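[step 3/7] inverse_fold.run input=structure_tokens len=392
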């Protein structure tokens, strides 16, 4: 923050005050301080793949960037070829039929869709149902729209799946949107049989839009195949799904994703976006088409790499006496600890390891820390060695 900015916080709008303190920024500061002090920090906090984007996708971007046809404002909803490639991918991968014209919308990453959907549907005071712990943007996007967040607790006892009967009827009837996310960040849980059907029924009964965040569908192990929410009977009537190339193809920096599903819901989101951005760079969409319609080898290799790291980390943690489940999907390991802030602080201070305290994902995350498998097996082994050397 530059010096001048220091004079303006008193002018912040009230809704800025409603935002939760950004814990991740504080952790970044603590990490930077350690690094300045010469500590070789192992960052197992970041949800950003360390693996590169597949070379054929990078080549396609370079080619497309040189084509002057791509140097103009993109279309708002995405190039027809991009939307067709998304529809074909959904058909191939999930057996879900999408009309590329009406049921696919290009996004600048799924965060774009998540951040803007409440603007289209939430009036001040309306409820939004969001998992806790959960991806922080479900909550902040609701607060920007001046909606109220009702946290759906995710507990180990319920396999980190919300118990819909626990949502008070008054809240359900005043709710506009329910965010769901399986495979889940940060708990790494996958959905259970029947849950998506229950969610569709709940949405129909209470007139709620379901926004399913499927950012991790391709990051899965031991033969697990994550479904699309849209495979569920009736889902197309009540739901949209956010997806992106970020995690699947190591493209977090490229900012390209898609919202798919119910055409009327998408059209509301599209109308908001027309007023805040001007679409995804056409050359990036060309590269995305190349990724979606090309070889799956890079995805399989990435999963293989994460799986190896997962096995190293889980075995090591168990050897150290921690009780921790091995995830079927996502690149996260979610581990119960007595006090997540104290644990994360000690890990950084005494071992130079960054882990994310669960409380950063909402009150339901208290008592857990999240390890990201976004560092090499060697670095994970090094981290385990340092943990072993820590005073008990
Ligand atoms: C990474 C992530 C996203 C956002 O990814 P984009 O890069 O914006 O596509 C969305 N949801 C969850 C749960 C994530 O972990």
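[step 3/7] decode complete -> sequence:
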């Amino acid at each position: 923050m530059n010096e001048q900015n220091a004079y303006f916080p008193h002018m912040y709008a009230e809704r800025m005050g409603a935002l939760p303190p950004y814990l991740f920024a504080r952790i970044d500061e603590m990490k930077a301080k350690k690094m300045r002090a010469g500590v070789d920090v192992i960052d197992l906090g970041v949800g950003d793949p360390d693996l590169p984007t597949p070379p054929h996708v990078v080549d396609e971007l370079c080619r497309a960037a040189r084509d002057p046809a791509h140097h103009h404002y993109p279309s708002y909803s995405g190039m027809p070829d991009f939307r067709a490639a998304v529809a074909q991918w959904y058909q191939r991968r999930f057996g879900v039929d999408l009309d590329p014209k009406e049921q696919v919308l290009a996004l600048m990453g799924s965060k774009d869709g998540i951040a803007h959907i409440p603007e289209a549907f939430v009036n001040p005071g309306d409820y939004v149902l969001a998992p806790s712990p959960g991806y922080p943007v479900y909550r902040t996007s609701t607060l920007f729209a001046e909606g109220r967040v009702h946290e759906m607790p995710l507990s180990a006892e319920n396999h980190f799946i919300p118990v819909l009967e626990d949502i008070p009827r008054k809240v359900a009837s005043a709710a506009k949107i329910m965010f769901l996310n399986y495979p889940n960040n940060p708990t790494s849980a996958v959905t259970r049989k029947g849950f998506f059907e229950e969610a569709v029924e709940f949405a129909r009964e209470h007139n709620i839009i379901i926004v399913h965040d499927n950012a991790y569908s391709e990051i899965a192990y031991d033969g697990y195949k994550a479904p699309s929410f849209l495979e569920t009977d009736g889902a197309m009537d009540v739901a949209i799904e956010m997806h992106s190339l970020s995690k699947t193809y190591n493209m977090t920096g490229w900012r390209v994703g898609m919202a798919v599903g119910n055409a009327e819901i998408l059209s509301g989101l599209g109308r908001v976006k027309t007023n805040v951005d001007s679409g995804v760079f056409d050359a990036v969409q060309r590269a995305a088409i190349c990724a979606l319609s090309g070889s799956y080898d890079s995805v399989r290799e990435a999963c293989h790499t994460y799986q190896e790291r997962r096995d190293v980390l889980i075995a090591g943690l168990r050897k150290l006496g921690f009780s921790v489940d091995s995830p079927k999907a996502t690149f996260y390991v979610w581990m119960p600890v007595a006090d997540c802030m104290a644990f994360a602080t000690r890990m950084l201070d005494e071992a130079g390891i960054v882990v994310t305290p669960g409380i950063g994902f909402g009150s339901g995350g208290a008592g857990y820390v999240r390890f990201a498998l976004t560092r090499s097996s060697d670095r994970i082994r090094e981290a385990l060695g340092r943990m072993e050397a820590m005073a008990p």
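[step 4/7] annotate
Residues 156 and 371 are 17 Å apart (CA to CA).
The chain has 14 helices and twelve strands.
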